[in-house]
Amino acid sequence: xxxxxxxxxxxxxxxxxxxxxxxxxxxxxxxxxxxxxxxxxxxxxxxxxxxxxxxxxxxxxxxxxxxxxxxxxxxxxxxxxxxxxxxxxxxxxxxxxxxxxxxxxxxxxx
Length: 110
Hints:
This protein is α+β, with helices and mostly antiparallel strands. Helix content is 51%, strand content 24%. The protein has helices spanning 9-19, 50-74, 78-97; strands at residues 22-29, 36-45, 102-109. The chain has a three-stranded mixed beta sheet with strand order 2-1-3. Helix 2 packs antiparallel against helix 3. It is globular and about 50 Å long.
């Protein structure tokens, strides 16, 4: 609606996701060699707790890197790799923590 305080369903969905936390996983790869030149770097807010958080982030990083390596070996585009990494990492987070945070996989090409 257009009334004061009205919010669209998309805004509600975004807010629900953010309430579960945010995880950003980034890596920098060379366009020419398709090899990792920096990273991975994982940033998490509002999802992990002390001891369990280390294990969760380590496992998510492993899943992300394995997906990247598999995609590069198969000749997949970085967009395809990013999409598959999102699915696999989200599944891992959900399985380990019971949460579904906003997940942002980033592959920077230089």
